[in-house]
Each structure stands twice: as C-alpha cells, then as structure tokens.
TrEMBL record:
Protein name: Restriction endonuclease
EC number of the protein: 3.1.21.-
One Pfam match: Mrr_cat
Native source organism of the sequence: Vibrio rumoiensis
Record-annotated membrane-spanning stretches: none
GO MF entry, a single one: hydrolase activity
Domain of life: Bacteria
Gene3D superfamilies assigned to the protein according to its UniProt record, in alphabetical order: 3.40.1350.10
C-alpha cells in the first residue's frame, strides 16, 4: 500500500470517528476503528479490509467495513466486484466504499443492487460553500473593530477640609504628611450639593473618550461646595481635587474569521444524496441544503 493510500485511510477514519463522537449513544461514541483488519471467512481464508468497526446495540452486534481508495479517477465496477468477493463468505458485514473522486455508472448500479453504501470522502472545495440553488454561504468574515477606551485617571489629589477633619475625626494631620490609598473602583465622591455619588472609575467615564485627532494627557480641577471623599472606611470633607488623566487614542483591531480553516472534511452519501461537513468543533449534517 502506498503512503497516500494509508494517509487516505487515516483521513476517512478520522472523519468517521468524529461522527461517532458526536452521537448521543455512548455505544457509538466509544467505537474503536481498526485499520487493515483481517477477518477469517467461512473457509478459513483471511480477508483484509482498510477500516473495520463493530458495536453492540440492543443486544445486536453490527459490523462494518470500509474500503478506501485514493484514486485520481472514478471508481470502476471491478472495484465494487472485488469488495463483494471479499465479503461473500463473511456473514453480517455492512460494506461501504469510500473514494475522493466518485464512481462510474456501472459501479453505482452494482453497489446499489448489492447494498454497498457509496461515499465520497474528501477535503473541502468551492461547491461546499454554496446552497443547492447556488446561494453562497459565508466562508470568511472580516471585522474592523474600533475600540474607544474611556479616560484613565493618572493621579487624583484631593484638597481636604482640615478643620472638618480635626472636628469630626481622630486623624492627625499636624505633620502635613497625610496619605490615602485609593482604588478607582472603591473610592467615591459624594457631592451633597448635586445629590450624587460616583466612583473614580465612573469619573473616568464622565471624562470622556479620545479621538484620532484629540487624545493625550490632560489636567482638571474639580471644585465642590459640599462634598465628601469616601475611601476605604474613611469619610473626609473635600473642597477640591486636582485630576490628571490620560485620554487614549482609539484602537483599531482587525478580526479575520476564516470558517474554511475549521472545515476538516466532507462526506457525501450518494445513496441519500446528502452531505455532512466535519468541522473541528461540530458536525453539520445536510451541509449545503436549504432548510
């Protein structure tokens, strides 16, 4: 057997295994596919088949063989005759033939009359991306995402009312070296005069977004008539705040989705005139048919 023939057997086996694993019945999901299986016929002669599997369901054992032929031309009737000859003296085998290119009319008739299922198992081609009526399916999607981030506060320096701190807290501010550890999602400004309370994270949203021509670092002074700064467990009266923030430039992020790269292979069932597409993460039966 040529390397190409063995590779084709493995290709057919991999697609068939993907079909089994997509089934709801555990018995089917656990099927083991054997390559170059030798089976003894009723006369003790060993017959070799490219692929073989069996499974038991409801007390009945089902046995299947596939002959895989990686031919450049259509399969002839002689190849079907050869398969029928191999299984003639082996009872209860389900015969299947798989090739890439198709079958001659005589081979189709012979297979139909002897209940041999014919498959075309191949890699994708352009016809797989069209419906039966010629309507094109989506093969690629190109998205140019335009991300506009909100402003980012670089520094926030509040001006605290010292008299209020002395009268209402036990914080010692006499050294003039008073520090606050602030997180933008856990530090809040409560503006009593405007009846609102918002975090520094929400303040970033209020500061806006940059544009292609208008971005960079900026400074802002916030003045308050009656406001408090909530930081951790502290509540401090605040008169103003110096804010340094950065307005980011919008980000362009192209996204290219190529669904054809996810399509591993296609199985055409000639007897049922249907086609199944095997993707990396899913199975699509009746692929290309209008639902």
């Amino acid at each position: 057997m040529s390397n190409n023939g063995r590779e084709y057997e493995e290709f057919v086996a991999s697609l068939q295994k993907a079909l089994f694993e997509s089934e709801q019945w555990t018995e089917l999901r656990n099927i083991q596919i054997e390559q170059n299986k030798k089976i003894k016929d009723n006369f003790g002669t060993l017959r070799e088949f490219d692929l073989y599997w069996e499974y038991e369901l409801a007390g009945i054992t089902y046995k299947t063989v596939i002959e895989c032929k990686d031919y450049a031309s259509k399969v002839s009737i002689e190849k079907i005759d050869a398969l029928l000859g191999k299984i003639r003296d082996i009872p209860d085998l389900k015969p299947i033939f798989a090739t890439k290119t198709g079958y001659q009319s005589g081979a189709k008739a012979k297979a139909h009359n002897n209940k041999v299922e014919l498959l075309i198992v191949r890699e994708q081609n352009d016809t797989d991306w069209e419906l039966d009526d010629g309507t094109s399916l989506i093969r690629e999607v190109v998205i140019n995402m335009h991300v506009i981030p909100a402003a980012r506060i670089v520094s926030f320096s509040p001006s605290i009312d010292g008299n209020w701190v002395k009268e209402n807290t036990e914080i010692d501010i006499s050294s003039g070296n008073f520090q606050l550890n602030m997180r933008n999602d856990m530090t809040f400004i409560e503006d009593i005069s405007k009846s609102e309370k918002y975090s520094l994270l929400q303040l970033e949203e209020r500061l806006g977004r940059g544009t292609e021509a208008d971005f960079g670092e900026r400074k802002l002074t916030l003045n308050f008539d009656d406001a408090f700064l909530h930081c951790a467990d502290m509540k401090l009266k605040m008169r103003a705040a110096e804010v340094t923030y950065f307005m980011p430039k919008p980000i362009e992020q192209p996204i290219h989705l190529d669904f054809s790269k996810e399509l591993v292979g296609v199985i055409e069932y000639l007897g049922k005139s249907s086609k199944t597409a095997i993707f990396k993460d899913r199975i699509v039966k009746d692929w290309g048919s209008k639902i």
